[in-house]
Amino acid sequence: MKLSFQAKIRIIVVIMIVILIAQSAFVIYKINQINIDKNLLEQNLLRDRIINTQCILVFVELILGIILFFYMPLILQKTLKPIKTVFSEISHGKFEITIPEQIKKGPISSLVHSTNVMINNLKAFDNAKKKKISGNRFQLIQIAENIDDGIIILNEKSEIVLANKHTQKLLKFTMDEDLPFLFDFHFEGDILKYFKEVTSNKTVIPARKIYFQKQKKHITFKNGIVHDNEGNICGMVITLTKIDLAKLYEKEESGDDEPKQKN
């Protein structure tokens, strides 16, 4: 069984205390074995002093051993607590952190330095990743807003990642916040049935034509599945094709094209 670092420290402390106590006991034993003339008071006093000193040392060693045994892990934990806090923040994606000045010196200074270097590298990587994601999202939005079809991009939780203006206009809803749930909006009839079938099955289903009175024609709904690098489903794309954009954006009477609100 592999021992933890604290267990190893405790074992070392126990071994050291046992050796010191054994050494003191051996000295006391040997002194008691020496034949000293009982009439020589100075020799008797010297032997008693040596024995008393060894007994005191054994007592002190025992006390120190107990203190080290129980408090060494607490001392180590207190010393490493700031670094533990740093790693806890990093695990939650927070990189705007610093190491307290008081622990930048001492036996763990090299560990602190390495930790600071790691934080700076992670921060740089995170900023580069966010910049790339932001750039890719901007390009995706530009493409979605400049095609003649409607498009809805969902994540694995059926939240709307992106819906272009044609889709929002046609289905009469407005995204006023990031990642709203698809069914937060009030869809009816064949549209609602299609969305429920797509999100519940999480698979590609046959294209479906749904009639829109305002368009006076059928709009074709299609869907596709998005997978991550490991093949797991991470989202879905729904497209609405054959939209008559001229009719979609023609001026309507007041109140005829109000956007849908969340339930």
Task: Give a structural overview.
The chain is α+β, with helices and mostly antiparallel strands. It contains six helices and five strands. The chain has helices at residues 5-33, 41-91, 109-145, 165-171, 189-201, 245-248, and strands at residues 150-155, 160-163, 208-212, 217-227, 233-241. The protein has a five-stranded antiparallel sheet. β3 and β4 (217-227) form a beta hairpin.
Annotate the secondary structure layout.
Blueprint: H1 5-33, H2 41-91, H3 109-145, E1 150-155, E2 160-163, H4 165-171, H5 189-201, E3 208-212, E4 217-227, E5 233-241, H6 245-248
Antiparallel strand pairs: 1-2, 1-5, 3-4, 4-5
User: Regions with pLDDT < 50 over 5+ consecutive residues?
Assistant: none
Order of helices and strands: HHHEEHHEEEH
Strand content: 5-15%
Main sheet overview: 5 strands, antiparallel
**What is the 3D form?**
rod-shaped
Number of H- or I-type helical stretches: 6
* Helicity level: 40-55%
Enumerate the strands of the largest sheet in spatial order, edge to edge or round the barrel: 2-1-5-4-3
Rg is 38 Å
- Average pLDDT, rounded to a whole number, is 79
Distance between the termini: 58 Å
Class by helix and strand content? alpha+beta
Oligomer: single chain
Number of strands: 5
